[in-house]
Design a protein that fits this description.
Elements (H helix, E strand, L loop, with lengths): L9 E2 L9 E5 L8 H12 L3 E8 L12 E6 L5 H17 L5 E5 L4 H11 L2 E6 L7 H4 L2 H14 L6 E3 L2 H11 L4 E2 L18 E5 L8 H7 L6 E5 L5 H10 L6 E5 L3 H10 L2 E4 L6 H4 L4 H9 L3 E4 L2 H10 L2 E4 L4 H13 L1 H14 L5 H16 L1
Parallel strand pairs: 2-3, 2-5, 3-4, 5-6, 6-7, 7-8, 9-10, 9-12, 10-11, 12-13, 13-14
Antiparallel strand pairs: 1-4
């Protein structure tokens, strides 16, 4: 409960029959899940009765009002195997008494309850694959964990014949592995009016999960050679190591951790930034075929970015030329590319103008049409 004594784990819109009841399940704290807020808002505005189910942490903030139902499940455990086991059990029993016409499992970590409930209730089921879950570095490099998740994937994904993912290479991988034909619905930012003003100070921004495989091992030490501040907005499984890297390299004054930031505040910070960073190593296939949310968030803020030269980013950049792409994520090269963006005003302005042009085509208002059509086709 909050200080007023009111429960803050649920926010409800007035019930309505609409076009059907959709329930989506995640393991995230709903306050910060911009992707699911976008998806659920679009479907609610289209006339569906939408519920988004996530987790409640001890540090969770009260939920902001949304045009869909939000439910957070509290767990005693907050990470590791015990968390996933507890959360999935709690999710199953919550869903068991929930009315729905379709259940959407968001990534592999909530797919088992989604499969069992859809079978018991005889309702439609959808798999929303934001990534190749088993091929993320933190899973792919740990044989026992990989084996457990891969077993779940092999058991469930072929049974989810309806689904979508964020780009064509990932859709092709699911087709190759499991024979499913998933649609592509990219997670692109909502087109909003922005006011480009002179930057008060130049700073570099990383926003998103502070997880393994995001190249912090080279990005943070690179800042020794860059006359600029790096601000990191987010949290994740690599946070302690990232902070240790800052201490080891004596960069406490140049690398600032802001932790998780609410979406509205994050958009404001992003628009003030001078350069964005989208880096991944290629230790996991999920990274190589990624299409990160922040790639579009930087674009929509009108800021150029340093980005890895992986297939999906290259395809977009070849058309719009909005980023400085690199094949080399070494400390030396990251510093060189960042320094060039900071010093080369002509190139910077060119990339910035291209961002402003591209956002008129690459935006959620265009992408949501495919999402709404998907559910229209599925539910009739």
């Amino acid at each position: 409960m909050d200080k007023t004594g009111k429960k803050n784990n649920i926010a409800i819109k007035p019930p309505s029959e609409g076009l059907g009841a959709l329930v989506f399940t995640v393991t995230t704290d709903l306050t910060y899940d911009q992707r699911m807020i976008r998806i659920c808002t679009s479907l609610a505005n289209a006339g569906y009765n939408v519920t988004l189910v996530g987790r409640k942490l001890k540090a969770s903030l009260p939920l902001a009002a949304q045009p869909f139902v939000q439910k957070r499940l509290y767990c005693f455990f907050e990470k590791g195997k015990l968390f996933y086991a507890e959360y999935n059990i709690r999710l199953f029993f919550y869903l068991l008494v929930k009315k729905m016409d379709c259940i959407g499992a968001i990534d592999l970590d909530t797919i088992l309850p989604g499969y069992f409930i859809s079978t018991i209730k005889k309702v439609k089921r959808v798999y929303d694959a934001h990534e190749l879950f088993c091929e993320m570095k933190e899973i792919a490099t740990r044989p026992a964990i990989y084996k457990a998740w891969k077993k779940i994937e092999r058991y469930t994904v072929p049974k989810f014949t309806n689904g979508y993912t964020v780009n064509q290479p990932i859709a092709d991988e699911f087709k190759k592995m499991y024979g499913v034909n998933y649609e592509v619905i990219r997670n692109i930012a909502l087109l909003r009016e922005i006011n480009l003003t002179e930057k008060k100070e130049k700073f570099i921004l990383y926003q998103g999960a502070v997880n393994e495989g995001r190249s912090f091992e080279t990005l943070i030490p690179a800042m020794k050679q860059v006359n600029c501040t790096l601000i990191i907005c987010g949290d994740g499984n690599f946070m302690e190591q990232a902070k240790s890297l800052v201490t080891e390299n004596n960069l406490q004054d140049k690398v600032i951790f802001k932790g998780k930031v609410k979406p509205d505040e994050l958009r404001a910070i992003t628009q003030q930034a001078y350069i964005g960073v989208t880096l991944f190593d290629d230790a996991g296939l999920s990274n190589y075929y990624s299409l990160a949310n922040r790639f579009f968030d930087y674009l929509h803020a009108g800021i150029p970015q340093l980005c890895v030269n992986y297939p999906v980013y290259k395809e977009i950049n070849d058309k719009y030329h909005i980023a400085a792409l690199t094949d080399d994520i070494s400390e030396k090269n990251i510093a060189a590319v960042l320094n060039n963006l900071l010093a080369n005003e002509v190139e910077y302005k060119k990339l910035q103008q291209n961002c402003l042009t591209a956002r008129q085509e690459l935006n959620w208002q265009q992408e949501e049409k495919k999402l709404i059509q998907f559910y229209k086709n599925l539910l009739g």
